[in-house]
């Protein structure tokens, strides 16, 4: 049960969102300076990109933990509880630790007018320092160049595949978005780069040369098999298996492997393989029932990978979907990926009203030839999906992080206490 003190502190933290998203580093530097610059004491890995940031960060973290390291992990957004964003050895920051930090930093936060994400970033770095982690993995929030996490000087930078997303903030074309993401590249800091489209690749290569960063690109990943048990693949002559499903997760795993080889080259093959099999990242093709999955994919490339993987792992089963999405997403870019993919596509919205109204979403999809049916809630949508599954289908709930709490509540998953 949440204490009254924690509820008030969390409310005050979320109220910092009134300051909006201030793309810039000055206030984060100021806040960190006021609390003793905890990031100066940490060995850090900085991860940017569009798709696969969370999964790659989780895999790196798990392999490092398998090797005996004490590891911090900072990610966003959360699925159910704020505490999920900040973890040490998979354990979320406690309510009491959040209260302690907010009271300690309160005057500085008010004076500087720190935003929600600036404050959360400082909290994470302070938490990792107080727990004396051996290393921490830091995921960017948006972009990279002006993201508040870019105050750190990491031992390693990582860029996962870049595609079109958050265009209202990062830019309307892949060139601009890639330049923002590549902003985490730093002079003399090695860069491990995932598979990119040709435009992003050129921009990252140029930035690396300008910064004097040693760039290591992930090589060819040979996909062996995708099944309900995970993904088998070959990389640089060695056979691996990950518990994650999908060719994209094999690519993420290879990226994580390259990171490990660079920062701790003595970590053994067996340790890496154990970490790959034990890694867990909820909301990514997550089984939540018999042939029923939840995935937070909300952009063109993410949804394309999701549908491809579900079909590979459930060959021969008709596909049914429950879809909802934020109103700021470019639906035009999603339509090709959705059209003709489902035997039936249900659309809905969330209880909190954070997502696009279901009727508006339905009309937009219909105008572009994507057949769909409106359902009034996540709960009713899941009930219908379960009926389709019972009659021999496969169901996927997708499109947003914001519905996680409702989804898990409907299927009886107490995710908020999970240790990653």
Keywords:
420 residues, alpha/beta, UDP-N-acetylmuramoyl-L-alanine:D-glutamate ligase, Protein-Tyrosine Phosphatase, Chain A, 2 domains, 8-stranded mixed sheet, 6-stranded mixed sheet, globular
How would you describe this structure to a colleague?
- The structure is a single chain.
- This protein is of the alpha/beta class.
- The chain has two domains: 4-278, UDP-N-acetylmuramoyl-L-alanine:D-glutamate ligase (3-Layer(aba) Sandwich); 286-417, Mur ligase, C-terminal domain (Protein-Tyrosine Phosphatase, Chain A).
- The chain is built from 15 helices and 17 strands.
- The protein has helices at 4-15, 26-34, 53-66, 95-112, 116-130, 167-170, 174-181, 198-211, 247-263, 269-278, 300-313, 335-338, 358-367, 378-390, 404-411; strands spanning 44-48, 71-74, 86-88, 91-92, 135-139, 156-159, 191-193, 215-217, 221-227, 230-235, 238-242, 286-289, 292-295, 319-323, 344-347, 373-374, 394-398.
- The strands form three sheets. The chain has an eight-stranded mixed beta sheet, with helices on both faces.
- Strand 12 and strand 13 (292-295) form a beta hairpin.
- Helix 2 crosses helix 4 (95-112), helix 3 (53-66) crosses helix 10 and helix 4 crosses helix 5 (116-130).
- The longest helix is centred in the first third of the chain and has 18 residues, at 95-112.
- The two termini are 21 Å apart.
């Amino acid at each position: 049960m949440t204490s009254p003190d924690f509820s008030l502190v969390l409310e005050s933290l979320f109220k910092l969102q009134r300051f909006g998203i201030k793309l810039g580093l000055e206030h984060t530097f100021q806040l960190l300076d006021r609390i003793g610059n905890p990031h100066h004491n940490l060995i850090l890995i900085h991860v940017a990109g569009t798709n696969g940031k969370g999964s790659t960060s989780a895999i790196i973290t798990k392999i490092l933990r398998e090797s005996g390291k004490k590891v911090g992990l900072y990610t966003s957004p959360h699925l159910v509880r704020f505490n999920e964003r900040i973890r040490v050895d998979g354990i979320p920051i406690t309510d009491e630790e959040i209260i302690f930090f907010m009271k300690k930093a309160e005057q500085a936060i008010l004076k500087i007018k720190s935003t929600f994400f600036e404050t959360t970033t400082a909290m994470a770095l302070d938490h990792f320092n107080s727990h004396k982690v051996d290393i921490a993995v830091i995921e960017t929030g948006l972009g990279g160049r002006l993201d508040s996490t870019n105050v750190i000087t990491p031992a390693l930078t990582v860029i996962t595949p870049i595609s079109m997303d958050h265009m209202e903030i990062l830019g309307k074309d892949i060139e601009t978005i890639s330049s923002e993401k590549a902003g985490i590249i730093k002079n003399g800091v090695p860069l491990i780069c995932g598979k990119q489209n040709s435009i992003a690749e050129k921009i990252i290569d140029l930035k690396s040369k300008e910064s004097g960063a040693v760039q290591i690109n992930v090589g060819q990943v040979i996909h062996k098999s995708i099944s309900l048990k995970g993904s088998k693949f070959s990389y640089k002559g060695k056979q691996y298996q990950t518990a994650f499903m999908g060719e994209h997760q094999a690519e993420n795993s290879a990226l994580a492997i390259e990171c490990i080889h660079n920062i701790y080259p003595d970590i053994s093959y067996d340790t890496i393989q154990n970490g790959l099999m034990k890694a867990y990242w909820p909301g990514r093709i997550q089984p939540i029932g018999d042939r029923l999955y939840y995935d937070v994919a909300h952009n063109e490339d993410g949804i394309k990978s999701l549908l491809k993987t579900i079909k590979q792992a459930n060959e021969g089963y008709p596909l049914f979907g429950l879809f909802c999405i934020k109103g700021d997403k470019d639906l035009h870019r999603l339509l090709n990926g959705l059209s003709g993919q489902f035997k039936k596509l249900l659309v809905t919205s969330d209880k909190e009203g954070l997502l696009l109204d279901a009727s508006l979403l339905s009309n937009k999809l219909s105008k572009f030839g994507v057949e769909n049916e409106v359902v009034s809630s996540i709960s009713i949508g899941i009930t219908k999906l379960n009926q389709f599954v019972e009659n021999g289908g496969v169901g996927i709930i997708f499109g947003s992080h914001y519905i996680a709490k409702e989804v898990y509540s409907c299927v009886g998953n107490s995710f908020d206490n999970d240790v990653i």
